[in-house]
């Protein structure tokens, strides 16, 4: 199974790239985490945020590999505990489909894209910088993998 993290933005600070790669490298061959970056639209004082959102949303959808379960990281989505993320990951693996997790840009995603998602996942009621969301998702997915496989990384409560 592959998990595609499809995200707007392709020039991240070095600490983001480093942290993301650290967690992505920990996944085994049977469950790979792969980043797919979509270029951000240029923003100026006269840019129309709705138009920028639509262009970025279209580019994100186009970058999602075929037949993937599509899950958007969205503030209005459902919050999951770490153990619930592990259960979701286990379900996704049992389905045998790849999964695409979409992270929009600073202006969010268009309603048309949000309506096409199979699930909406909120990382928190807090607002995170979009680059930080990549790192949080990668870490939580690795933690979920470690729970499923009884690895010592997660020392919290059993699922």
TL;DR?
With 159 residues, the protein is an alpha/beta fold. The chain has helices spanning 14-26, 49-63, 82-95, 111-115, 130-148; strands at residues 2-8, 32-38, 69-79, 99-103, 119-122.
Q: Look at the structure and give the CATH class.
A: Alpha Beta
Largest sheet: 5 strands, parallel
Second rung of CATH, namely the architecture = 3-Layer(aba) Sandwich
Annotation, overall tally of beta strands: 5
Write the CATH fold name: Alpha/beta knot
Describe this structure in words.
This protein has 159 residues and is an alpha/beta fold. It has a single domain, classed as Alpha/beta knot. 42% of the residues lie in helices and 21% in strands. The chain has five helices and five strands, in the order βαβαβαβαβα. A five-stranded parallel sheet has the order 2-1-4-3-5. Strand 3 (69-79), helix 3 and strand 4 (99-103) form a beta-alpha-beta unit. The mean pLDDT is 92.
Protein traits:
about 160 residues; alpha/beta; Alpha/beta knot; five-stranded parallel beta sheet; 5 helices; about 20% strand; globular
Secondary structure topology:
Layout: E1 2-8, H1 14-26, E2 32-38, H2 49-63, E3 69-79, H3 82-95, E4 99-103, H4 111-115, E5 119-122, H5 130-148
Parallel strand pairs: 1-2, 1-4, 3-4, 3-5
């Amino acid at each position: 199974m592959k998990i595609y993290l499809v995200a707007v933005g392709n020039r991240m600070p070095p600490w983001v790239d480093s942290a993301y790669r650290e967690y992505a490298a920990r996944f085994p061959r049977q469950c790979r985490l792969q980043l797919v970056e979509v270029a951000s639209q240029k923003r100026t004082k006269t840019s129309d945020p709705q138009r920028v959102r639509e262009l970025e949303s279209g580019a994100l959808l186009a970058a999602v590999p075929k037949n993937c379960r599509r899950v958007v990281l969205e503030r209005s989505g459902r919050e999951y505990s770490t153990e619930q993320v592990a259960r979701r990951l286990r379900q996704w693996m049992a389905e045998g489909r790849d999964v695409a997790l979409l992270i929009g840009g600073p202006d969010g995603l268009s309603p048309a894209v949000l309506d096409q998602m199979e699930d909406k996942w909120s990382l928190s009621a807090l607002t995170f910088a979009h680059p930080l969301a990549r790192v949080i998702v990668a870490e939580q997915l690795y933690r979920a993998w470690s729970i499923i496989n009884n690895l010592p990384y997660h020392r919290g409560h059993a699922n």
